From TrEMBL:
InterPro entries, per database record: Variant_surf_glycoprt_trypan_C
Gene3D superfamilies linked to this entry: 3.30.1680.30, 3.30.1680.40, Variant Surface Glycoprotein, subunit A domain 1 (3.90.150.10), Variant Surface Glycoprotein, subunit A, domain 2 (1.10.470.10)
Name the record gives this protein: Trypanosome variant surface glycoprotein C-terminal domain containing protein
Residue stretches of biased makeup (Basic and acidic residues): 426-443
Subcellular location: Cell membrane
Signal peptide annotation: 1-19
Cell membrane keyword on record: yes
Record GO cellular component, one term: plasma membrane
Domain Trypanosome variant surface glycoprotein C-terminal: 375-470
Entry membrane topology: Lipid-anchor; GPI-anchor
One Pfam family this sequence matches: Trypan_glycop_C
Taxonomic lineage of the native organism: Eukaryota, Discoba, Euglenozoa, Kinetoplastea, Metakinetoplastina
Main location: membrane
Known role: VSG forms a coat on the surface of the parasite. The trypanosome evades the immune response of the host by expressing a series of antigenically distinct VSGs from an estimated 1000 VSG genes.
Species this protein is from: Trypanosoma brucei equiperdum
Amino acid sequence: MQLKAVAQLFICFHAIVIAGSRTKESLPAAGLNLACGIAKTLREIGHFATTMASKIPEEETKLKVTAINLKLMFKKGLIEPTDDNLNAYMYISSQIDKSQQALGGHLPGFIKASLSAAMLAEQISETTEMFFKARTNTGAGQSYCMAEDHNTAKHATASHIPNCVAGEDVRLNHGDAEVTAAPDLTSLTAEVPGKGSAATLGANSNGNCHLSATMQSHRILNHANGNEATLYLAGGLLKIAGTAYDNNAWSTQHDKQPNSAITETRSRYATVTSALPNTLDTLKKLAKLGEDTDPQIEDTKVQSTDLGLSGEAKEITIKKTVFSNLHKELKQFLTETQTEKNKERQTVARDMLVKALAKPSEPIKCNTSVTDDVCYAIKEETACNATAACSYNKTETDSNKKCKVDAEKPKKKSVSATQPQTTETTTDKCKDKKKDECKSPDCKWEGETCKDPSFLLKTEFAVITAVFIS
């Protein structure tokens, strides 16, 4: 960078500001302050690009929701599908598409311009800092490179370059401010102001500064071979060459390399129009339809082709009253929808509370009068205990009632009352035996087959117990 070459050329401030016999002028603060003003505008380009890149998609998303709600209202018959209403809806949809096209078409150019502008602004800032800090701290006869003005023998303070400072520090910092309007770069394309007859930007003969000295033949360096240097500082706005330093040292029109920061920024920013700010403004207004306050969208002229109408393109005007009516209907729809949602949430919450506070239902109790006869019919101890809800009582004196209902038995065993509580399989173990092998107590010959009495009772009891055991 040019500035790095300058830094290498002047190693330290002591060498820069030493007194000498020749005229070594200082620069008036006014020129550098003007340059810093340009730098501030340049920095806005980057912030503007950032704002557009975030705000346009944000408002576009809001408008998509508005379009969805309007379409839903058409389907429900809440909005009449008149030509005016349909035109307004199609216009809203078209603006969503156009916002995407505008952002995609202009944002890359803004980003490129912001890169060039940031470099140019930084060059201005560094040059300003170098001239401002190049001074001694002595009183009378002190040396300095930035003077209060073009004739006063005093070095400049931060108050003389308000565009260049943040507090007392000489630095440019735009912060994270939101920039929604395209920056005006007239100051970069027009001539630097203050170049009238009065030498307001000309050299101050005081200061003893080598950075802007008119040494011998008015060059920052002078050698016998005539190869004197010409420097462009502050991003190319400040020229120090072989002529006496005057107002012409400051200019946006200096002859310089075609790839300089000024030329590059001008070229890239030339494509900047009001397209993105206008797009953002339109999206914001349309996205406010249905909110608390009517956005007051004025009569809007639009081409019929943008509204999906066939035939030759013609201009159609969507009246302000159409947008106002849609706003009113949409606001009512959204309010009622939210009210219904709130009611539904309250109803669900109440049902959950009622269920949580409800007492658990009483368990079903056994009706022993139904099952006594079933258990009494079982005479064998093994068969009785193998049955899910019966238990054999050896101390019972009545032989016909030794097998009794035990309502707690299924609960203790954690088995279903419809299943026999036994580890044995519920198959008939006697059915394949011959008559001479079919003997009690396990088997009994009935008719032409050998049967297992306990198997029959188990099967019958499994069905019956399902009636009274929970």
